[in-house]
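Glycosyltransferase family 39 protein structure dump, as promised
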Amino acid sequence: MKRNEIILVCLLFLVAFGLRFYDISYPNFRWGDEMAHVPAGTNYWLNGQFEPDNWEHPPLRHIIMYGFLQLFGDNPYGWRMRNILFGAVAAVLTYLFAREVSGTKKAALLAGLLLATDPLHIVMSRYTFEEIYGGAFFLSAIVLYQRHRERSSWLMASAFFMGCALATKWYYVPCWLLVYLLILRKNGHYRSVGTAFFITATYIFIPLSVFIGSYYFWFGRGYSFGEFLQFIQDAYYSLQTYRPESYNPDMVFLSHSSALEWFIRSVTVGQGTFIGADRGEFILYMNNLPIWILTFPALIFLAALALRRRSLELALPVLLFFGTYALFIGVKRPTFIYSAAPLLPFAFTAIACSVWELAQKCHARLYHLALATMLAWNLYLYPLATAKKVPVAPYRYLLDNSDAKLFRQ
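C-alpha cells r here:
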C-alpha cells in the first residue's frame, strides 16, 4: 500500500472514529443493554458466571468488556470505547475488503465511507452491541484470508480472528466453513494431503480453540469438557425457543422481528423525547432504506459480473452476504434489526462496486454524484442516531412513520 493510500485509510478511520466518539459520555448512565453487559463482564472475569447477561451467547464479549473497564474505568468511556474503536476499525476493514474485491481505491472508499457514516452502525458503535466487535473480528478474518497469498502466518491470523468472531456470536459459523472450503479449493490445495491437513488443522483447530478458550473462567468453576459440550447443546436449543413474547414487552425492537424486512422495507425503532414545541432528541435504530434497498440489485449485478469474468474475488461479497443472511432467515427465533450489522460491509461493497462499474460504463461523474448523495443522506440522519437535540420539522416524516417509542418532556 502506497503512502497516499495509507493517509486515505487513516483519514477514513478518523472520520469513523469521530462520528462514533463525539459526545459519547451522553447519556452518563448505563443505557439499554449496558445495564446487563457491563456488570456481566466483571462477574464473568471474577466468578465465571454470565449473569445478568444471557448465558447462551459465547463469553469473549465479557472478557473484552472487563479489559476496557480496567483501561478506562466504570464510566461511559469504559462501557462504550470498545465498540467505538471496533466500529471505526470496521470501516477501514470494509475499505480493505472492497479494495481487494474491486481492485480500485474509489469503490473501496465509497464502501468504507458508507459503513463509516451508516446510522445503524454508528448508533450500535456507541453502545455495547456484540455485532460491532464480532463483525470486526469476522471482517479481519476475511481480509487476512484475501491477502494471505499462501503465507501460513497470515492464514493462522485469519483463523484466530475467525475464532474471536465465533466466540462472540454464532452468526459466523456458516461463513467460517465456507471460507475453509474456499481455502481448500484454491490452487487445488485439497489434492495435496499435507497441504489439506495443514489448512484443516489451521482453520478448524485454531477457531475452535479460541471459542473453547473463551470459556476459561467458566471451566474454572470445575466443569468438565463433557459438561461443556452439553452446555453448548443446551445453549443452542435454548436460543431456538425464543419468541417475541420471550422478551421484555418494552423492548424497542419488537415491532420488527423478521430479517426478511431489512433490505426491502423501512425499519425504524428506538426511542426519543420531544423537547418543547419544535425540538427533540432521539436514539433510533434504522435501516436507512434509500441506500439499503440497493443491496439486492447490487448483489445480483455483482454476481452476474463475477460469473462473466469468472472471478471468485468479485463473488466473495455475494457469498459472504448470503452465507450469513441465510442463517437469519432460517432460524425460528426473532431476528431484530441490529443483527443486520455484520452484513453491511458486504452489502456496501456490492453497492460501491456496482456504482463504480456503472460509472465506468456511463459517466465518471455518476460515481461522485452517488458518493456525495449517499454521504449527505447518512449525515442528515446522524443526529437521529446520536441523541443530538435537533429541530423536529426536518425529520417529521421519518418520525411519524417510525415505530419508535416517542415521549414528550
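The mean pLDDT is 94.
lmk if u need the other ones
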